[in-house]
Amino acid sequence: MFKPENHGLSPEFRLTKFSTLRVYNEQQHPQQQLGDKETKDDKSKEGVGIGLDSSVIALRDELFLVQSVDFFYPLIDDPFALGRIALANVVSDVYAVGATEIDQIKLIVSAPTEFTEKERNVIVPMVMDGFLAAAKECKAPVHIGSIAENPWCIIGGAATAVCHRSELIMPYNAQVGDAIVLTKPLGTQLATNAYIWMNERSDNWTRLQERFSVADVEETYRIALESMCRLNLTGATLMRKYNAHAATDVTGFGLYGHAENLAKYQKADVDFHIDKLPIIKNVREMAELLGRSAKLLAGKAVETSGGLLICLPSGDATSFCEEYRNSTSHPAWVIGSVKEGKRSAQMNLNLEYIDVD
């Protein structure tokens, strides 16, 4: 775990104190994202506008340009891990359309004007190192421009890929009978917040102490941190192998928001029915203790660097999940199905909750 004093900073330094800009990346409300929805109805056009995760633009000779820009504020105090999460979050939007080979990534980072010179010289390079370390996993070159000063701390980037038509999985071909698979658990926001509250000895930590030990919170945080740092590359690769029909990644709008948005984008008249929610160990109980269960248990809690939400043939779903576990040592889950409907997401009134450790 990051200890600021080991880097010559005050033991009281907290990167999350510079998170006053509570804006989650470039996305709008999911209901407002569909300005390019006519693309799915015009058979003479191919691609995806700005309505979903990435912009997918037809070029020539069956080539497509896939681009995404994504950024957020510090949600944890460890700058190296934050850099890794930022990279995973940026490339996830490209992976969501099946593009697994990324041609360029640009780092976007701003140093808060409230940073001291020492803090800037320690924290910014650590964020960059984490970003670059994660980029090596996806074998993509990274361009680092100038580091801007800003009233707020912003970390993110832009990812670009040029792909052949055969490499892409357009996000609007879900079919009745498809299984819906999720590749990462939910609950990252509360898991990371609980760790911050514990370190700050806040009122929320006082309440959490009634049921949870320091070791409990640290374990929950570790699970969330690993999940957020893990690339969605394996999931994207397996999407192509197992004939996925549509996908998105789960981030700022929560599982329900992203499922609803993806459903509205479909060519067919379908609904997405969600029956299960995999949630990081201890998070459900933490939410209950703090009176914060409503959004979490409705699939509406904010996530960062979440998993892929994938529609694929039901006959391939079990094999997908088995190979995903064998490749990553982590589970993926069949959490629902695609049925005839009116392009919406439906949450089962008797949801099954899965604790993930």
From TrEMBL:
Pfam families noted in UniProt: AIRS, AIRS_C
Domain PurM-like C-terminal: 175-344
Biological-process GO terms, alphabetical: selenocysteine biosynthetic process
GO MF entry, a single one: ATP binding
InterPro entries listed in its UniProt record: PurM-like_C_dom (IPR010918), PurM-like_C_sf (IPR036676), PurM-like_N (IPR016188), PurM-like_N_sf (IPR036921), SPS/SelD (IPR004536)
Annotated region (Disordered), positions in chain: 27-46
Residues spanning the membrane: none
Biased composition (Basic and acidic residues): 35-46
PurM-like N-terminal domain sequence ranges: 53-161
GO cellular component: cytoplasm
Keywords: ATP-binding, Kinase, Nucleotide-binding, Selenium, Transferase
PANTHER family in the record: INACTIVE SELENIDE, WATER DIKINASE-LIKE PROTEIN-RELATED, SELENIDE, WATER DIKINASE
Name listed for the protein in its UniProt record: PurM-like C-terminal domain-containing protein
